[in-house]
Write a structure and sequence with these properties.
- The protein is built from eleven helices and nine strands.
- The chain has a seven-stranded mixed beta sheet. It has a two-stranded antiparallel sheet with strand order 1-8.
- It is 34% helix and 18% strand.
- The radius of gyration is 21 Å and the shape is elongated.
Length: 294
């Protein structure tokens, strides 16, 4: 690493403890038959660990300055394909095609693009089996938070709608070079084959969830006033046996789904009597994001 300076604007914090990295890779369950997409391989320490256990690894690195060290660290691994560029500007379907169905995403994600990376992966439609990543400890808490807890929010619902999250290990700042200002955690997100319950109108669901957490101190009836009529909301909540005075932070993922489905049942999804803006069939669900995860 002599002469190589980390780039703050790229969020570079290198994790070089190989024994710790091997333990993280082992916790993902990656096997020789599996393909792995790595985002931001940096100096190649995690990459080497992945290449030793996976059948195929595609690593995407944006920083030209680390390429000589990365190539040196990973020379001899014929199962590695290195892609140079920003992961957000790649044709993900094309570069992951060699990995086959049910591939893994394993990475020490640059903290300044955590939310965009989750957006990219969760809404890609790609056959991802698992996302296992190093993130800020605060973000890990949000991903796994239970309803009613201080960390529970939009990111929690988005994650748990698509994934089954597990904390693998904490990673103190001192493990990294240079040390970040906060501690980190490695999380394993096993992708769900389907949402936890059937959803009638996904776009409506995410409009409701966004509104509920954008004004999280308000009751649901007040917070969702821009999405649906108060009378319909009250009827839907009462029909589910929920108190109309509840706030959005009290609802789990399945309860949010049930509430959006109940609104559809009252007078049809997207009708003016229930919802204040009709949805267009085929429009991607606008899940929104959680800026605190950036």
């Amino acid at each position: 690493m002599s002469g190589l300076r980390h780039k703050h604007d790229l969020g570079q914090h290198f994790l070089r403890d190989e024994a710790f990295l091997r333990s993280l890779v082992a916790a993902t369950g990656v096997a020789p038959a599996d393909g792995v997409l790595e985002i931001g391989p940096g100096l190649g320490d995690l990459t080497r660990c992945l290449c030793r256990v996976a059948g195929k690894v595609v690593a995407v690195e944006v920083d030209q300055a680390v390429l000589p060290a990365l190539r040196e660290a990973t020379k001899g691994f014929e199962n590695l394909t290195l892609v140079v560029g920003d992961i957000r500007r790649q044709d993900l379907r094309a570069i992951t095609r060699p990995l086959g169905d049910g591939f893994y995403v394993i990475a020490n994600i640059p903290y300044n693009i955590t939310t965009p990376i989750f957006d990219l992966l969760w809404q890609s439609g790609l056959p991802i089996r698992q996302i296992s990543v190093m993130v800020q400890r605060e973000v890990a808490q949000k991903l796994m938070a239970a309803p009613g807890s201080p960390a529970y929010g939009l990111l929690s619902v988005r994650c748990q709608y698509r994934c089954l999250p597990t904390l693998v290990a904490d990673a103190p700042a001192a493990l990294f070079t240079p040390p970040p200002k906060v501690d980190s955690a490695f999380v394993r997100l096993d992708m769900r084959a389907q949402p936890p319950a059937p959803v009638r109108d996904e776009a409506l669901l995410w409009r409701m969830v966004r509104a509920g957490f954008n004004q999280r101190r308000k009751t649901l009836v007040n917070a969702l006033g821009g999405v649906a009529e108060a009378k319909a909301l009250t009827a839907a909540l009462e029909g589910l046996g929920l108190d109309a005075r509840l706030r959005g932070e009290a609802l789990g993922v399945e309860e949010w789904i049930a509430l959006s489905n109940a609104l559809c049942d009252l007078s049809g999804c997207g009708t003016p009597a229930t919802c204040k803006r009709q949805t267009t069939p085929g429009t991607p669900a606008p899940e929104g994001n959680d800026t605190a995860a950036r």
